[in-house]
């Protein structure tokens, strides 16, 4: 098992990953998804549905691994789609994938930009008043 796939298994055990099409769609509805992950052999219908539900606003990682490898990393038989709900873990996964293949750099840049935007927003907020 490759290091990025092992990292996905860790994220699932930490409760930061929704795995399977139904779980991904539910996570998308809650608005907590930071990164979408699709297996290399995910069906066209699955890919179109996930891309449509994301509204084009979320970065999508297209893995080189197939459904069997992704599912095995998550403790399932097979899995075509997953959604990461933690931004820092999403960035860490993207960094691991960029080390292996440079084509994932735009996803990493989008996630890093999102993190910086959140940091700027937090910096602008005035502190809570104490009573």
Structure characteristics:
131 residues, alpha+beta, 60s Ribosomal Protein L30, Chain: A, four-stranded mixed beta sheet, 6 helices
**CATH-defined topology:** 60s Ribosomal Protein L30, Chain: A
**Strand elements, count:** 4
Spell the H/E element sequence.
Answer: HEHEHEHEHH
Largest sheet: 4 strands, mixed
Overall average pLDDT: 90
Number of domains: 1
Alpha-carbon distance between the two ends? 54 Å
CATH architecture: 2-Layer Sandwich
User: What proportion strand?
Assistant: 5-15%
List the total number of helices. Answer: 6
| Annotated CATH homologous superfamily | Ribosomal protein L30/S12
Structural class: alpha+beta
What's the CATH C level? Alpha Beta
Structure description:
The protein has 131 residues and is α+β, with helices and mostly antiparallel strands. It has one domain: 60s Ribosomal Protein L30, Chain: A (2-Layer Sandwich), CATH 3.30.1330.30. Helices cover 56% and strands 11% of the residues. The chain has 6 helices and 4 strands. A 4-stranded mixed beta sheet has the order 1-4-2-3, sandwiched between helices. Helix 1 runs antiparallel to helix 5. It is globular. The mean pLDDT is 90.
Short précis:
The chain is of the alpha+beta class and 131 residues long.
Layout: helices, strands, pairs:
Layout: H1 3-13, E1 17-19, H2 21-30, E2 35-38, H3 44-54, E3 60-62, H4 67-73, E4 81-84, H5 87-100, H6 105-124
Helix pairs in contact: 1-5, 2-3, 5-6
């Amino acid at each position: 098992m490759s290091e990025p796939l092992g990292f996905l298994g860790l994220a699932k055990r930490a409760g930061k990953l929704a795995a399977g099409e139904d779980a991904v769609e539910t996570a998308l509805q809650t608005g907590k998804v930071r990164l979408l992950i699709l297996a290399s052999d995910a069906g066209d219908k699955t890919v179109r549905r996930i891309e449509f539900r994301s509204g084009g606003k979320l970065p999508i990682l297209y893995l080189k691994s197939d459904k069997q490898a992704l599912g095995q990393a998550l403790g399932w038989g097979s899995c075509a789609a997953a959604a990461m709900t933690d931004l820092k873990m999403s960035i860490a996964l993207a960094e691991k994938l960029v080390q292996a293949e440079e084509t994932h750099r735009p996803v990493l840049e989008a996630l890093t930009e999102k993190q910086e935007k959140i940091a700027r927003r937090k910096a602008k907020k005035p502190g809570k008043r104490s009573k």
